[in-house]
Specification:
There is one protein chain. The chain is of the alpha/beta class.
Length: about 160
């Protein structure tokens, strides 16, 4: 994982650390994220149609990594959004504590606009706000996407 900088904010009391992570495929999403806060905003840019990966394992890893605000971008991102929402509901039905994780998809937005949204505008539910000191920008499988994420993030970090 690469540190991209710190994102100041007029909307929050504290800035967020911004990280970039390039993965070869969705199955490579780590069990834990090495970040400076207990929870994070997570942008996942991937081709969810061509590379669906193991959905339940991916959703578990996203939640276990401390994601409290999830943004999906790329082909099939609406499906990824729905998979994560479904996983969260299934956990609650199984007796796990309720999780108020916000999920969004950005099928009509450019990758640069989605990075801006995640870094600047994504705000988790009030119960997670104090612990959400990180934004993790993950690109999967496309080297160009990783470069685009870093360029877009550079416009919003110190």
């Amino acid at each position: 994982m690469k540190t991209l900088g710190i994102a100041p904010s007029l909307l929050r009391h504290t800035p967020r650390h911004v990280y970039g992570l390039a993965l070869p495929d969705l199955d490579a999403f780590p069990d834990r994220l090495a970040i400076d806060s207990p929870c994070c905003v997570l942008l996942l840019a991937a081709d969810f149609v061509a590379r669906p990966g193991h959905r339940d394992r991916l959703c578990r890893r996203i939640v276990d990594a401390g994601c409290v605000y999830f943004c999906a971008w790329g082909p099939g991102c609406e499906q990824m959004h729905d998979w994560l929402d479904g996983y969260i509901v299934e956990r609650e039905i199984e007796g796990h504590p309720e999780m108020n994780i916000c999920t969004t998809w950005h099928s009509a937005d450019s990758l640069a606009d989605t990075v801006e949204y995640a870094v600047v505008f994504a705000e988790p539910a009030d119960e997670y706000a104090a612990g959400c000191g990180s934004v993790v920008l993950v690109s999967v499988g496309e080297a160009d996407w990783s470069a685009q994420v870093e360029r877009a993030a550079a416009r919003h970090v110190l």
